[in-house]
Amino acid sequence: MKKIIVAVDGYSSCGKSTIAKALAKFAGYTYVDTGAMYRGVALYALRHQLEGEEVVGALSDIHLSFALQNDGSQHLLLNGEDVEPYIRTLEVGSKASQISPIHEVRAFLVAQQQEMGRQKGIVMDGRDIGTVVFPQAELKLFLTARPEVRAQRRFDELKGKGEDPVFADVLADVNERDYRDTHRAESPLRQAEDAIVVDNSELTREEQMQHIISLFQKAID
Question: Which of 151, 173, 178, 183 is deepest in the core (most CB within 10 A)?
Answer without folding.
Answer: 151
